């Protein structure tokens, strides 16, 4: 059987599934892959309607809508980080409560609240760092093409949605439905080489499904993943490890990507020889955009070798 790649998208609402799949195909292969690729499209679990086709996705590094950015920037400039953290956590809890899906809470939830706090302070630090005339030698922080309040607003947009969707996955009752979408996308694929590519929260969902199924996967690719963060590992259904059926795992992140606060999986996910941690340059506005990750040579070449070898 020919190889297949299954994509699992990340945080936030997305354009319709067919368009999203084509965008990922083009970034990874340079063309639409037709039936050779599938998108595990879990966005409807959280969002009632997809993004319009022509609307850029700010959580994938695109610019926010022009009419919304000034208000976001004004709010980001006026609101201290601790108030933003409290408001975002309260919104996540309220959403779960409104749906009657409070899930686990208390001490367990505080770990993810700590992650939200760390992300927020780092986001604001990176946004302010763009004003410096001399970039850091250790971590180049190029100035984004926005004034500092606009950069802060874009970073906080990423932080807020990343946290709220992860919160919904672990505590809001959305996790089983998200995993079911991924499991259905894997149905009927036994026999040919399988590649699974996840981005952001999608890496958590894909990982937990593969841990449960033990399915043979020639290559697992995680992009901008929070799986190395201890607060996330504390809430996984099973202790961290390479899923039993995975032959090789490549984990790519940019040092400035807030969702991937910890960039190395090898120390926690055994057997370590199956895991390769890659530091790449993602020059999307928030350094988390999936298109920029998929177009990296270190990401594309191992996937393309599998498809070329089966030709």
Automatic annotation (TrEMBL):
Q: Which domain of life is it from?
A: Bacteria
SUPFAM superfamilies with a match to the protein in the record: alpha/beta-Hydrolases
Write the protein's name.
Alpha/beta hydrolase
Instruction: Provide the taxonomic classification.
Output: Bacteria, Bacillati, Actinomycetota, Actinomycetes, Kitasatosporales
């Amino acid at each position: 059987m020919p190889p297949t790649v299954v994509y699992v998208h990340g945080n936030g609402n997305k354009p319709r599934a067919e368009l999203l799949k084509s965008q990922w195909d083009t970034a990874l292969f340079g063309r639409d892959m037709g039936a050779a690729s599938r998108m595990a499209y879990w966005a409807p679990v959280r969002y009632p309607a997809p993004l319009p086709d022509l609307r850029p996705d700010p959580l994938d590094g695109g610019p926010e809508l022009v009419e919304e950015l000034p208000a976001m920037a004004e709010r980001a400039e006026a609101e201290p980080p601790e108030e933003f953290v409290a408001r975002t956590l309260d919104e996540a809890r309220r959403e779960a409560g409104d749906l009657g899906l409070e899930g686990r809470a208390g001490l367990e939830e505080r770990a993810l609240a700590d992650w939200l706090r760390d992300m927020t302070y780092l986001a604001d630090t990176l946004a302010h760092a763009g004003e410096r005339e001399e970039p850091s030698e250790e971590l180049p922080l190029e100035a984004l093409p926005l004034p500092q309040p606009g950069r802060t607003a874009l970073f906080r947009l990423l932080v807020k949605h990343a946290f709220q969707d992860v919160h919904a996955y672990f505590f809001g009752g959305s996790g089983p439905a998200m995993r079911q979408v991924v499991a259905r996308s894997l149905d009927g694929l036994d026999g040919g080489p399988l590649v699974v590519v996840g981005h952001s929260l999608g890496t958590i969902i894909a990982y937990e499904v593969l841990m449960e199924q033990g399915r043979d996967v020639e290559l697992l690719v995680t992009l901008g993943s929070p799986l190395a963060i201890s607060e996330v590992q504390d809430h996984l259904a099973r202790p961290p490890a390479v899923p039993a059926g995975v032959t090789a795992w490549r984990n790519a992140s940019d040092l400035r990507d807030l969702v991937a606060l910890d960039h190395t999986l090898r120390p926690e996910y055994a057997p370590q020889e199956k895991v390769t941690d890659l530091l790449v340059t993602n020059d999307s506005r928030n350094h988390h955009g999936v298109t920029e990750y998929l177009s990296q040579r270190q990401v594309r070449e191992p996937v393309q070798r599998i498809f070329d070898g089966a030709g």
